């Protein structure tokens, strides 16, 4: 593409996308959600690195660490992960409520705490447990399943944070708060002024919790999770199925919902069973029956993480002008090499960013088409079904599952993905760069 044509394309793209981006950037709820994720950002980065150290993709790494530190060595890394990324909904709820309350000029700290309590009220303090190797079911109460405190409860958490803040706002706007005399310390005054809003928020969500106990879903979490997953249950293991599954993974991520977990709950059991069939055929010396298996998804569809964002990270480091893009790219590159891309998803961001959402949807479709038909045509051999860690870096992963041609395919993927992301990244980078150049002038 010549420089003149590229400039024309960028101008047309900006003319279409910028008004949409402007509308979204002015929406108080989306801004609050964005800020909520940014609050969780440091914890996500530390959690992602901890996950990497616990699952470093080197053969024998686990046995080596176990030999030095003993059984349970990975708890040293898993516990920080479980207390950060695995509990991200808690931090996002507080961040959203605090951000939105500042917009409304109401007390942010108490609003954040009250919103979190509202979420805990609609979250079940029980779970059904089936011990490994048995068919017995046990009902355990007095606990909070961490499933709903992580990405699976994120959508409910965002709704609760916004609704709780709106309730507090309405109560405060009407003056339904306890006002203390002027001589009372501010901390005491704030505590009493939050009393009535807290009551309304807690009992509103208590009624929501009670209402769902009369439905087949039992909880609002099950309801939301069910309506997101159920349309996907009819998916098969074909090329169209892989395209549709990856579309929904990416689409959910654009709104901050962990699409890999939502869709993966349906597709992973199917793809793992197909993987087992490939392994059996490989061991028996028979033709491999399937192209789309779990390793196909892990190795060829997650090049740097959901959306195939490794090329995007490299472009941010070497091709961007703005310091913000460069720094986020440098921060995201190491996790990205191991297919962990929360730092770039929430840091650039891609979440709730209509400009970056376009390539985030397009790139996986192109990668899927290219990889599937490369394998179907015989240019690249089918995957034997040998399962390798999803954190295995690109090129190494392709080599391990498909030999040299698999590694070459991943290199081609990286180049193509980079070219698709680049014009959209340039648009975002241009805006950041202009803001950075204007900042010193505004300061003066």
Notable features of this structure?
two-stranded antiparallel sheet; 69% helix
Describe, in plain words, how this protein is organized in 3D.
With 444 residues, this protein is mainly α. It has 2 domains: 193 residues, no CATH class; 211 residues, no CATH class. The protein contains 18 helices and 2 strands. Strands 1-2 form a two-stranded antiparallel sheet. Strand 1 and strand 2 form a beta hairpin. The longest helix has 48 residues. The mean pLDDT is 83.
> Percent of residues in helical segments?
55-70%
Oligomer: single chain
The helix-strand sequence is: HHHHHHEEHHHHHHHHHHHH
Overall geometry comes to globular
| Tally of individual domains | 2
Our Rg estimate from Cα atoms comes to: 24 Å
Q: What is the total tally of β strands?
A: 2
What is the average of the pLDDT values? 83
The computed structural class is: mainly alpha
| Spatial separation of the terminal alpha carbons | 41 Å
Count of helices?
Answer: 18
Uncertain stretches: none
User: Beta-strand percentage?
Assistant: under 5%
Main pleated-sheet profile: 2 strands, antiparallel
Adjacency order of strands in the biggest sheet: 1-2
